[in-house]
Amino acid sequence: MSGKFEPKTPVQLAPPKTDPISLEALAEANGEEGRKCYVAIKGIVYDVTGNKFYQPGGSYHLFAGKDASHALAKTSTKPEDVKPEWKHLDDKEKGVLNDWVTFFSKRYNVVGVVEGATNLDE
Fold first, then answer.
1. I need a labelling partner for 115 at 20 to 30 A (CA). Which of 16, 26, 40, 106 fits?
2. What gap in Å lies between CA 42 and CA 114, rounded to an integer?
3. Other CB atoms closer than 10 Å to residue 94's CB: what's the count?
4. CB atoms inside a 10 Å sphere around CB 73
5. In angstroms, rounded to a whole number, what is the distance separating the alpha carbons of residues 57 and 9?
6. What residues pair up with 114 in beta bridges, in sequence order?
7. 97, burial (CB in 10 Å: exposed 0-12, middle 13-18, buried 19+)
8. Is 112 strand, coil or helix?
9. Phi then psi dihedrals of residue 109, to 5 deg
10. In 10 A of CB 76, how many CB atoms?
11. CB neighbours (10 Å) of residue 16?
12. How many C-beta atoms surround the C-beta of residue 42 within 10 A?
C-alpha cells in the first residue's frame, strides 16, 4: 500500500527526535499565546504548530498539548476521550490508531517522547 496517507504536498521532515518531553512541557505546547503546538500519539510527540485545526479555535484544538491516542483510535472529539491509554482497545480501534500514526508521521516532525510514557508501541 505504497502511498497510503501521503500528503498532497510533499513535506520535508527532520529526523525524528527522541528527546524526553515532560507532561508539563507537552501541556504548555497547546498553541495558545503563540506557543508551539504538540500532539502526542502512543507517547510520540508531533509538532503540529503549522496546522490551524490544532490551534485555538480549531476543530482538533482539544488534542493540543495532550496524548490523544484513545480519542484518535475512537475517532472521537469528546474531551473525556482525550487520554493516552489505548492498549485495552479492540483490534479495529488499534488499526485506526495505527493509521493516525502513519498519517502524522508523514506530515509532522517528531520532536520527542513523552517522559515516562507507558503507552509506547511494543
1. 106
2. 9
3. 15
4. 24
5. 24
6. 21
7. buried
8. strand
9. -70, 140
10. 14
11. 14
12. 23
- Cell numbers 504548530 correspond to what residue? 49
Query: Mapping DSSP to helix (H, G, I), strand (E, B) and coil, where does residue 10 land?
Result: coil
Are the C-beta atoms of residues 46 and 72 closer than 8 Å to each other? no
**Residues shown for the chain:** 122
Rounded to 5 degrees, what are φ and ψ at 12? -90, 110
Q: Which residue has the cell 512541557?
A: 25
0.90 surpassed by pTM: yes
**H/E run at residue 113:** strand 109-114
Whole-angstrom Cα distance, residue 87 to residue 42? 10
Give CA–CA dist 24/1, Å, rounded: 38
In the chain, the percentage of residues whose pLDDT exceeds 90 is 89
Q: pLDDT tens across 64-121, in order?
A: 999 999 999 999 999 999 999 999 999 999 999 999 999 999 999 999 999 999 999 8
Residue type, 1: M
Q: What CA–CA distance (Å, rounded) separates 91 from 112?
A: 26
The one-letter amino acid code at 15 reads P
